[in-house]
Amino acid sequence: MRLLEYQAKELLAQRGVPAPSGQVAATPEAAREVAARLGRVVVKAQVSVGGRGKAGGIKLAETPAEAEAAARALLGSTLKGLPVRQVLVEQALEIARELYLSVALDRAQRCLVLISCAEGGVDIEEVGRLRPASLARIPLDPFVGLRGHHIRQAAHAAHLPAELGAAFAGLAEGLYRCLHECDATLAEINPLALTVDGRLVAADAKIVVDDNALYRQPELAAWGQEGEEPYQALAREQGLSYIKLTGEIGCMVNGAGLAMATMDITRLYGSAPANFADIGGGARAERVLAALRIILADPQVRAVLINIFGGITRCDEVAEGIVAALRELRPRVPIVARLVGTNQEEGQRILGQAQVLTAHSLSEAARLAVSLARPAGGQP
Ligand code: GDP
Ligand code: MN
After folding, report:
1. 238 shares a domain with 368
2. Residue whose CA lies nearest to ligand 1 atom number 16
């Protein structure tokens, strides 16, 4: 579960990581009041997705009236498919340089890593891809934890001025403690701003809490739902794995491997997944209906691709769920289903009667879904 920026900053501030003065606001008027106290501000959309700056979700405001206008433009809009319900109004920083600092779980190395880079900010993914060597990834032995030499190595990689060594160390320790105490798999500050007046401030923060630890983090679990994609909670209740993505094909599958293959093939045919819901093994019609309800609620979905390989899952049961979804949800986009395995004949008969588009192979189904999502000559 990914927390919102203002939540992450609050958790970090409790552990001594400095963030700009600011407050979250849910109305343009409230944003104006905060700005009246703080002066020049940035108004930041609170949605649990990265790249807000490039998508227009971060606005600089010189006056309270500008802050109000910025908040009015952002609140109620959607950013990368997510509704903006709150904005963070923060004192604007005079940034001299943007650094990157995070602690993350590295599954391949089976330990936490401290990651730092001299080129933080919105293009960190590019930096990681084009110049991976400029990112320091420092493994942290779980029996040793974070020590001074790790921090000095990170500071060196970030080209940190020597006089900021102590401030940087305090910040790195706070970040590390935050990750542990919140059961997070990622605690990231990007950018870590080096201000014109020589301070280190977390200009942005991201914390991802391990979903498997939410049972012992009830406060974070409740808090985190604020920033969740609206249907995430419903998916969890229904025992579905549901992930929101940025493309246009809604995918319903059973099993993680099938999910990956299904998403890959939408890309192969020139599209991309908008989301996927994994109904797991042995799903009953009710769970299928819930999955389609969640998938179809995503306004970015332009076609649905259902890919089921029946083992313990029965194709007739899935087909019943699809038919129930058609009746109940009256989808505005086409649905293409490929059901094979246990009871496939019965499943296909049920879908045939309901006039659902079916295909025998995955590639046929994917090609059809992609072509329906992009009518000839139409824009994606
Ligand atoms: P993200 O795009 O979702 O990662 O949002 P960020 O909070 O990281 O903001 C994106 C970019 O906006 C940052 O990399 C900064 O360059 C800029 N930015 C954010 N806050 C401030 C601020 O207070 N002052 C200035 N000058 N730039 C800011
Ligand atoms: Mn950022």
Report:
1. yes
2. 121
Q: Read off the pLDDT of residues 104-133 as tens digits, 9 standing for 90 and up.
A: 999 999 999 999 999 999 888 888 889 988
If asked whether residues 61 and 105 sit together in one domain, one would say no
Parallel, antiparallel or unpaired: strands 82-83 and 22-25: unpaired
- Which of 100, 176, 231, 242 is an active site residue? 100
- Residue of the nearest CA to atom 25 in ligand 1? 93
Ligand nearest to the CA of 98: 1
The 8-class DSSP code of residue 297 comes to T
What CATH number corresponds to the domain at position 180? Answer: 3.30.470.20
The verdict on pTM exceeding 0.85 is no
Instruction: Mark whether 231 is an active-site residue.
Output: no
Query: Where does 216-297 have alpha helices with state H?
Result: 218-224, 232-237, 256-268, 285-296
pLDDT, tens digit (0-9, with 9 covering 90-100), for 143-200: 999 999 999 999 999 999 999 999 999 999 999 999 999 999 999 999 999 999 999 9
